[in-house]
Specification:
This protein is mainly alpha-helical. 58% of the residues lie in helices and 0% in strands. The longest helix has 18 residues, at 15-32. The protein is globular and about 55 Å long.
Amino acid sequence: MTKHVHRYINRGLFEKDKITFMLMICFKILITAKKLTGNDVGAFLKAGAGEDIKTARPKPQGNQFNFIDEKPWLNIIAFSKHTFGESSVPNFKELPDLVQKNQPGWLQYFEKNDPENYPIPDLAERMSQEKEEMRAFMEMTLVRCVR
């Protein structure tokens, strides 16, 4: 049924909208299969849009943190509060502290043209312990947050 719906709707879409439609179908399949939750998809799509700069943890001060704008900082804060899957504890609650402590490593990661192809500073080992599907989604969400 999914294949037929995809083919039928895909015929009527502009080329630029086909990838968005594929992403929507992919997310729905993963939610139905209980590999992702609706909150996980929301975290990917909205990132830090729900955070308020006035009430969120302030961005570190100093010239060494100029590489982080307000929006990516709010995304990092939101990412650190999110619980992936059925977990009840935020998976990356220490992320803002890690960014502050390892500023040179995160600066290099931020400046990469293709950060998805490089290990995540301070988190690579822990990410490798996650299930493959969830690890890939977490990495993709983190890249989306910093970009």
